[in-house]
Design brief:
The protein has 167 residues and is mainly alpha-helical. The protein is 63% helix and 7% strand. It contains 5 helices and 3 strands, in the order βαβαβααα.
Amino acid sequence: VFCITGTLSQVRSRFEAKLRQSGASVVPRVTKECTHLIVGAEGEGTVKYSKALEQGVEVVSEEWVLDLIESGPKPAAAPSKEKGSAVKRARTTTSGGGSKKAKEEEEEKQLLQELQKVEAEAERRKREIKQQLAALKKDGAKAAIEGKQEEEEEEAEIEAEAEAEAE
């Protein structure tokens, strides 16, 4: 069961149609039934992305899904109860089994998920820092305006004193 976030390289409805043709389901939100979140451009900072990470949903790219669909079914470690879909059977190819390749794929998957978590945290921190900088700039501009007003007031007082002394 797939959910999509971010901007895809193709029209979303066409992409969803490809998923459904391969036997997958597509849902609008990350829920308990969601197994994969497809992340397009700018999708890493979304609520769906954060929720997927929190719930342990596998985060994948559009390219990964397209490759999976195009490569067709892969031999499963055990017969799948789900009907004929390459997308659905992908889950059974990496679970269980003791092959070295399956273990490497699982390790790679875990590392990619960890990388995605780190990247998401970096993006969140980057936004936070940008907000802090914007606030500092705003405060700095405000302080500069106030400082200029104080200087003008002091100059006016000095001129008034000078005029009073001159009289």
